[in-house]
Amino acid sequence: AKEEGKNNFRLYDSTLNPNAEERMEIKNSLRYALDRQEFVIHYQPQIEVGSGQILGLEALIRWNHPKRGLVMPGSFISIAEETGLIVPIGEWVLRTVCAQSKAWQEAGLPPVRIAVNLSGRQFAQNQLAEHIQEILTDTGLDPTYLELEITESMAMQDKNWTTLEELRKMNITISIDDFGTHYSSLSYLKHLPVNKIKIDRSFVDGIAKDPKDEAIIMAMLLVARHLNLTILAEGVETAEQYLFLEHNQCDEIQGYFFYKPQPADHIPKILREHAPD
Ligand code: C2E
Ligand code: CA
Ligand code: CA
Ligand code: CA
């Protein structure tokens, strides 16, 4: 019977594609990653078009896996969302980033805003605003230096609107990430306490290649200007893209053309040289 069980298992196992197997392995080791302190945050500067000064940093999580090396969020965030682990992981990110930012300020570096990605699951939590208030109080970070990036789909759900209002009342900046990638009505921008939109890299990629992408970007810039929203373009990789965005009066840019996401210990030198005092 034992032998049979083994064979059955093998049979079942062989129907799994390597992807599913890998996901399973990630799922298992992800559970211990927080306790084992395997996560690290990298920071990518956000630059003011024109002045070239750094106005903010986006915090991006990486997983320092004992066997796989540095694992990118694309390989584990969706699994963390499925399992609910994103809630404690997201809280760790917020706490780490707020403490880091406060430490940089106390070391005398020019203060810049730090943007943190929130997942839908985190947003749906009860008392998110209270949680964040607690983190701000514990770390001593001024809320004007915290920015939360949410997706269009999170922004459009009316069940999230009271939380958004609470966060705005706390003077936290709210931005819409990956703007334009979902079919959505623009009317939510009119009702919501949002400060900033981030043009998705998929549009920026088309600059100087696809006039339709350029047209969409110009429309987004126009909407943002008329609604008094700050607008940032993501994934800027070339001088041509940068010049197009500068010419069309985009406020801020983020991308490999200026900086890749950097480990925390590279940030002090970068801020000292390129952030406004
Ligand atoms: P995102 O929020 O859209 O972040 C931007 C992604 O684009 C980052 O990938 C960044 O490294 C990459 N990027 C920046 N500039 C360029 C460029 O010029 N060219 C190209 N090709 N890529 C560029 P990353 O770090 O792998 O993160 C992927 C996604 O994982 C993020 O997309 C975000 O949705 C998610 N993520 C990252 N950190 C967190 C986190 O702490 N919490 C949650 N919930 N999600 C996170
Ligand atoms: Ca983001
Ligand atoms: Ca994005
Ligand atoms: Ca994205």
From TrEMBL:
Record's protein name: Uncharacterized protein
Organism expressing this protein natively: Paenibacillus baekrokdamisoli
Stretch of the intact protein here: 493 to 769 of 778
